[in-house]
Automatic annotation (TrEMBL):
This is Endonuclease/exonuclease/phosphatase family metal-dependent hydrolase. InterPro entries: Endo/exonu/phosph_ase_sf, Endo/exonuclease/phosphatase, TDP2-like. Its cofactor is Mn(2+); Mg(2+). One of its GO terms (molecular function) is endonuclease activity.
Amino acid sequence: MAKLNLFDKFVFFLNSIAATTLLLSYLLLYVEPKRFAFVSVLSLTVPFLIIVNLLFVIYWLLKVKKQLFLSLIVLLIGFNYVTSLYKFSTSKQLESPENIAVMNYNVRLFNLFKWIPDISVAKDISEFISDKKPDIISMQEYRHDDGLLLKGYYKFEMLSGDKIRNGQAIFSKFPIINKGSIEFPNTFNNAIFVDVVKGRDTIRVYNVHLQSLKIDASKDPLKNETSENLVKRVGNTFRMQQAQADLFLEHKAKCSYKIIVCGDLNNTAYSYVYNSIKGDDLKDTFVEAGNGFGRSFDFKFFPVRIDFIMVDDHFEINGFKTFNVKLSDHFPIMSTVKVK
């Protein structure tokens, strides 16, 4: 530190705070929100902390200072965290006639309240899906809309609410032989599932929509709410998400079929609920086959990935893509998988 001028000493002080905070955040995968809700809120800041520490590495590298090793070592320790935000490898795209294309899309009620002006969202989503030709589609914040025209699909939907009936839906080109829902208490959010038959294989497809943080991506979350209230509200939401994830895992444990899990977890890949749902038996298809930023939510401040497609070890993951289609506040994601 003796060779640093006053300004660089201040920069290194800030660097130390950012590096320490990121290092501590690596433990959040194992911190139960119901016990430490306040601490678990930190998981939302991990993408920001990764980017900030990368900037500190670049700053010290340009100044040829050994202080670059602080953030560099912390980033290397959490390399799996970095690759959950950004994949440096090229996207894996293996073609096979046995591939199953699985899409997940939070459709935001098909623009019911005209968040996006002068656009027929249901019609445009229909055309997008017809172009991409997924075999299975998992939708959250779904409602019936005459503009949604999807041909050649079996469908299961579970809707609730009085004024605006909405919920989740699964579309499948493969016959559905069983279906059901996992009810979450005191909320309109839930999880649904279908069992589909492809050839000799029966596959369980889950569509999971955990409790929403209710943060408007187009606005500053602190503009109309104090930071204290925001942290308290998010902490309460994380506790609900943990209880919902536990209900899902209890249901999933009874399934003997090959499993695909899709959904909007309303939380990041650095959270307890993501870690508990993924567990040791599921693979995150973006981590295995994606590239670039895993951005699935249109948050204006930094890349956020809260939508996921996971599969168990019965599947090979042959591709993943995020589509920059602005028909919702989420971006559609699609993975191609093949039964081994």
